[in-house]
Amino acid sequence: HIVASVQAAAQDLGWPPPPAERVRSVIGLSLDQALARALPGLSRAEAQAFQTAYRERYLAEDRDEGGLYPGALRVLDRLQGQGIWSAVATGKGRAGLDRVLSELDIEARFVATRCADEARSKPHPQMLEDLLDVTGLEADQALMVGDTSFDLEMAAAIRMPAVAVTGGAHPEARLRECRPLAILPGVSHLDEWLAGQGVFPSRQGQ
């Protein structure tokens, strides 16, 4: 969805579309930061025109890119049932995140959220630092679960433990370079990994 929207927006403006792999490599950054890497050398006016075209294309897409990973809702519910807080640090803007959370009816499952237009872009850790301030936790009391190297890098910057999930924009090899605690084949495996760490009982023991 993101790759298609970026390429379509460029074509709408009469520009050659950037290669898909280049676009995938910047997913997770704020739109400003992603644009600077995916389409370098744009003037301020060109960048503003592209952002407008991209948002129009993104919202017009029929495919539901905002859907959750398979098993994610079950994991969120299990965490909530165990009294474990979940939060969001995202490259989306506030309007985009609020729209997705509302459409999926999952706002109540998150104790706090931070967006790219409220803090410095990933991989700077400001979003995580803000979430720690809201929750009153220390970095070593939290766990970052991410599907891009930018997620893992922002966690590493403040020594927050992190787990990688494959299937996102960045290949497993790039995630592995960030040395997360684990690389899981999907979010649906997170609760069993947490059970293995003693965070809550394994489902086999329930």
Task: Write up what this structure looks like.
This protein has a three-stranded parallel sheet. Helix 6 links the parallel strand 1 (87-89) and strand 2. It has two domains: 2-60, DNA polymerase, domain 1; 72-205, HAD superfamily/HAD-like (Rossmann fold). The mean pLDDT is 89. The relative contact order is 0.12. With 206 residues, it is mainly alpha-helical. It has helices at 2-12, 20-26, 31-38, 44-60, 72-81, 94-104, 126-135, 149-157, 172-177, 190-196, and strands at 87-89, 112-114, 144-146, 162-165, 182-184. It starts with a helix and ends in a 10-residue tail after the last helix. Helix content is 47%, strand content 8%. It contains ten helices and five strands, in the order αααααβαβαβαβαβα.
